[in-house]
């Protein structure tokens, strides 16, 4: 019965779509009313219509919207270029026109219910001093079943392939969840003496060893047997979608869980949005709207990837115990040599606590001490490790210098 929940949800959204379309159309015409004509009444009506038109999730990736970037004292145009693609993801290059030669860097985005555009701010900062590529993951609900499965090993394979396409001496920065796959890819490539193995590996707030100071998230992952997650959270993609009948962990289920953890805050935000719209406070309203445009753009997770991540990373801790396998061979972090290793953690991170990412330093015994860097950022939570003021002013300069010294 649970496996049909996604289909029921999609049917409901299709059924109520005319209401949202009608509200959007009404808002469009209402905005044509001259200012001064009963402003208070029309603004409140417009606010109501806008909230109705926005009362749905989107399954399409938002735009990155990075058109220009300041490099030194020169503003350069940025264009997006798909360097390589598979059915499950693209290697997206943020190409800068007339840019000086800079270290090539692969930013590994998490596959965790939101699109890689969640790292838009991270990309903007990195672009100042690096030639940036990103793992732009595709939504499984749009991938036909004939393209097969996508599990944890497939994720790691993608990183190896993407690094190969970028070429030798690139740098890899993994944010959160994919730190395990990034470390595995670096280990496999090092053991094979792959010419495109990364020059440096940076792991930021990643669950390398979740036995260390377990968080509530870690506790939940271990609180139930793996078959519970498969039975209660995995659904089939609705028949209306290109990926019909693919097994996924639906984005709307993930978002519901996130929202429920801070329900009062989200309700208040929407009340504030309605008030800002009614008062004509466009700038304040736009800040809230921009946040929720990204937050409500959700991506499903392939069932295999989700289940294997919960089991191998959060329940059985295979990597730190030396038991993680990739395509039938052990993943050996000690094989990583001639590579810089940086780990970054946040003091107040309640998703990936202090020590869980640092554990990579102990696993990578082949990396010389002078090539190892660890930074614990005071005063930031999980997202503050890779976004916001302290990321820009305190963490990023350390990462930039680490990459450039090892280039």
Automatic annotation (TrEMBL):
Pfam families registered for this protein in UniProt: PHB_depo_C
Keywords (A to Z) from UniProt: Hydrolase
Top-tier EC class: hydrolase
Residues covered by the PHB de-polymerase C-terminal domain: 205-406
Tagged with keyword Hydrolase: yes
Catalytic activity, EC: 3.1.1.75
InterPro entries referenced in this protein's UniProt entry, alphabetically: AB_hydrolase_fold (IPR029058), PHA/PHB_synthase (IPR051321), PHB_depo_C (IPR009656), PHB_depoly_PhaZ (IPR010915)
Molecular functions (GO terms): poly(3-hydroxybutyrate) depolymerase activity
PANTHER family (alphabetical): BLR0908 PROTEIN, POLY(3-HYDROXYALKANOATE) POLYMERASE SUBUNIT PHAC
NCBIfam families linked to this entry: PHB_depoly_PhaZ
Protein name as annotated: Poly(3-hydroxybutyrate) depolymerase
